[in-house]
Design brief:
about 350 residues, alpha+beta, seven-stranded mixed sheet, binds 3,4-dihydroxyphenylalanine
């Protein structure tokens, strides 16, 4: 009988020693299994109960339960200690050195084309224009036919135009948006239409098979060439500075009559002549003219009642001029070191 008591005491001592030695949670669990588990030492004492006299059994049960409680309490205490130590070690190993240089978030940058476009839009929206868009894949009908560009016109050559099929092309200009807007029949019209255009050109410093234009169109009663001139002069002054002069040179476009090309005085040398303007003092920036009466007619507008003017600006050309970029290809390489400068 006291043998059993002795045995239980011994178990408590052994377990306490083993718990004290356990330096991690796995070892502690091994101790639990060895002493308290189904095949553990304390359980073995209970299993030996059958050899104990019936009146002694409650006492033995009591000893075993006390021993179990004692061992469990100590184990629980030790477990908490080990868990805390583990957590601390983890925090230690995962700590961040806040003095290290941070990983940089690379911010993008607005493209010079976008900056230039937003500038042009700001100017025309300020004059009451609406910004509209048309499709990049366009019917031959709008890209050419309704703009007075007949079937045998050189612009329609496959050398110049990307054909999807005989009726559909990648638009070669933003001018078809004029026809689309006029056809809607809502008058008066005061719009600009920026967008991508396509021509079968080889890439070089001033050419690309895909570039951007900004189309402008005004249709109303009593619109004259004076309106066109005043508008574009104001546009040039806003874009290139208040001292900018403009020059209208006669030109030909099929969908305007009369037509002109517009030069601005070189904003680099003020018109004296420099490398930038190739010594001429002038820089060409756009094409324009009075909307051809036949174009108005084809788009359902009575040319006896309404007149209009139109213009087309190359967006890249504006960006290159404004930011003094000497090679158009730089605009398409999207090198952030280049883009960041504007
Ligand atoms: N679409 C012409 C081109 O790509 C540019 C142009 C000229 C547009 C005169 C116009 C205009 O609206 O009136 O060369």
């Amino acid at each position: 009988m006291s043998d059993i008591q002795e045995k239980v005491k011994q178990i408590i001592e052994d377990a306490t020693a083993k718990i004290g030695q356990a330096d991690n949670l796995e070892k502690l669990n091994d101790v639990r299994v060895a002493f308290l588990g189904k095949k553990g030492e304390l359980t073995a004492v209970l299993k030996g109960m059958k050899n104990v006299a019936a009146e002694e059994r409650p006492k033995v049960g009591q000893w075993v339960n006390d021993a179990r409680n004692q061992i469990e309490n100590y184990m629980e205490e030790t477990k908490k200690k080990l868990e805390r130590a583990k957590r601390e070690a983890q925090i230690e190993s995962e700590s961040i050195d806040v003095t290290l240089p941070a990983k940089k978030m690379e911010m993008g940058h607005r493209h010079p084309n976008t900056i230039a476009l937003e500038e042009v839009e700001r100017i025309f929206v300020g004059m009451g224009y609406e910004v509209v868009e048309g499709p990049e894949v366009e019917y031959d009908l709008y890209n050419f036919e309704k703009l007075n560009i007949p079937a045998n016109h050189p612009a329609k050559d496959e050398q110049d135009t990307f054909y999807i099929n005989k009726d559909i092309v990648l638009r070669t200009q933003t001018s078809p948006v004029q026809a689309r807007i006029m056809e809607q029949g809502k008058l008066p019209i005061r719009m600009i239409a920026p967008g991508r255009v396509f021509r079968s050109d080889e890439v070089d410093a001033t050419h690309s098979p895909s570039f951007h234009q900004i189309e402008g169109l005004v249709v109303d009663k009593n619109i004259t060439f004076a309106d066109l001139k005043g508008t574009l002069e104001e546009f040039a002054r806003e874009l290139f500075g208040p001292d900018t002069k403009t020059k209208f040179r006669p030109h030909h476009f099929p969908f305007t009559e009369p037509s002109a090309e517009v030069d601005v005085s070189c904003f680099k040398c003020g018109g004296k002549g420099c490398r930038f303007c190739k010594g001429s003092g002038w820089i060409e920036i756009l094409g324009c003219g009075m909307v051809h009466p036949h174009v108005l007619e084809m788009c359902g507008i009575d040319p006896n009642e309404y007149t209009g003017f139109a213009f087309g600006v190359g967006l890249e050309r504006i960006a290159l001029l404004k930011y003094e970029i000497d090679d158009m290809r730089l605009l398409y390489e999207n090198d952030i070191r280049f883009l960041k400068q504007f």
